[in-house]
């Protein structure tokens, strides 16, 4: 598409001028088997329950995450509430952080508790093409001359740091001077590296309270780093859905600044699964229940009889709404993103991401 080609050209030019910033979300790490924040919360909760049960049992990572995914599709409880429930199972902050580390890297651990320090950076990239593409962009950087200027990640993990291996970088999770000639990797929600010596809960944004505290502190190092980067460099968001409220607030603030911003986001085109006949019938039954409520409230209407027949009128009522929402969805999402100063680059399949990243570099 012409719009996509123009966006790639802008990103390529920024890369050549050393003015490209990357913003990384959970979609980058899931390719290596790490959980998203919602699955991490549930997996920690399930694991804590298993350890404190009358008959404790060991949960294997694959079943832990698969069960968390199943539960997410069916539970209506806000995950912030589940995160609060977690606190009662830990004797102190150190205990909590160790369990978070164990759950986050469950698939990377030798046995049940020790980190695998011999992870091959090349192997991580082979199994995660998106991470490989990001790594290649970073490795092609020459400080102040070309390539990636800054990486801002909303992930706790150190997969990018492992993949970069001997390339000069500096992982930053608090206000710290940047070393000369190093690529900064800012962990604005906290940093929980695989090969860790010490962790404190103050290092991460995990609970609802911590999130609100981070969002309302306009002059925190994390917010200042994001605003400065969003307003002064060309940005590319990868693995982000722009659903983070604080992220949208920052984008909105930057879009109102008297500066020209140039930020892009790689996003999967929304897909819709049309409702089958059984689902349509359930929607119709729900609609009829509303007619009954209208009647018992004293509202007399002949609509109920009309749509309680076997003709296609009720079917058309439902499908017309669903089809129109589907038709305008991509355009509406693009409009909202443009209002925030973000130009979407839509793709149909995830395996297109490495190709897009390679086209920026070459």
What does this structure look like?
With 362 residues, the protein is of the alpha/beta class. It folds into 3 domains: 201 residues, TPP-binding domain (Rossmann fold), CATH 3.40.50.1220; 57 residues, no CATH class; 50 residues, no CATH class. The protein is 51% helix and 12% strand. Strands 5-6-4-1-7-8-9 form a 7-stranded parallel sheet, sandwiched between helices. A two-stranded antiparallel ribbon has the order 2-3. α8 runs parallel beside α16. The two termini are 19 Å apart.
Put simply, the count of helices is 16
**Beginning-to-end CA distance, first to last residue:** 19 Å
Highest CATH level, the class of the largest domain? Alpha Beta
Enumerate the strands of the largest sheet in spatial order, edge to edge or round the barrel.
5-6-4-1-7-8-9
User: Radius of gyration over alpha carbons?
Assistant: 24 Å
Overall domain count: 3
Main sheet specs: 7 strands, parallel
Within the CATH hierarchy, at the fold level, what is the topology of the largest domain?
Rossmann fold
Shape: globular
Round the mean pLDDT to the nearest integer and report it: 85
Order of helices and strands: HEHHHHHEEHHEHEEHHEHEHHHEH
| Beta-strand content bin | 5-15%
- Say how many strands there are: 9
CATH superfamily of the largest domain, by name, is TPP-binding domain
The CATH architecture of the largest domain can be named as 3-Layer(aba) Sandwich
């Amino acid at each position: 598409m012409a719009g996509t080609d123009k966006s790639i050209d802008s990103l390529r030019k920024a890369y050549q001028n050393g003015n490209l910033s990357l913003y990384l979300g959970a979609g980058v790490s899931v390719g290596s088997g790490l959980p998203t924040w919602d699955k991490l919360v549930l997996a920690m909760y399930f694991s804590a329950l298993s350890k404190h049960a009358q008959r404790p049992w060991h949960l294997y990572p694959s079943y832990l995450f698969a069960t968390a995914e199943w539960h997410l599709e069916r539970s209506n409880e806000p995950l912030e509430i589940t995160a609060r429930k977690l606190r009662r199972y830990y004797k102190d902050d150190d205990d909590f952080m160790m369990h978070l580390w164990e759950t986050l890297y469950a698939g990377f651990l030798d046995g049940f508790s020790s980190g695998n320090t011999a992870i091959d950076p090349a192997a991580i990239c082979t199994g995660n093409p998106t991470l490989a593409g990001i790594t290649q962009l970073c490795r092609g950087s020459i400080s102040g001359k070309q390539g990636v200027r800054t990486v801002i990640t909303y992930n706790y993990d150190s997969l990018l740091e492992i993949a970069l291996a001997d390339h000069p970088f500096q992982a930053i999770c608090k206000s710290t001077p940047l070393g000369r000639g190093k690529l900064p990797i800012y962990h604005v929600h906290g940093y929980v590296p695989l090969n860790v010596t010490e962790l404190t809960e103050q290092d991460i944004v995990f609970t609802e309270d911590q999130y609100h505290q981070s969002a309302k502190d306009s002059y925190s190092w994390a917010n200042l780093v994001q605003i400065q980067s969003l307003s002064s460099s060309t940005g590319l968001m990868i693995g982000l859905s722009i659903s983070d409220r604080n992220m949208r607030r920052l984008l909105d603030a930057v879009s109102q600044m008297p500066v020209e911003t140039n930020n892009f986001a790689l996003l999967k085109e929304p897909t819709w699964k049309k409702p089958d006949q059984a689902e349509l019938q359930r929607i119709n039954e729900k609609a009829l229940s509303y007619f009954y409520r209208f009647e018992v409230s004293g509202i007399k209407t002949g609509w109920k009889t009309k749509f309680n027949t076997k003709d296609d009128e009720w079917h058309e009522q439902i499908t017309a709404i669903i089809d129109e929402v589907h038709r305008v969805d991509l355009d509406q999402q693009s409009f909202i993103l443009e209002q925030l100063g973000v130009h979407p680059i839509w793709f149909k399949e995830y395996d297109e991401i490495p190709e897009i990243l390679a086209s920026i570099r070459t």
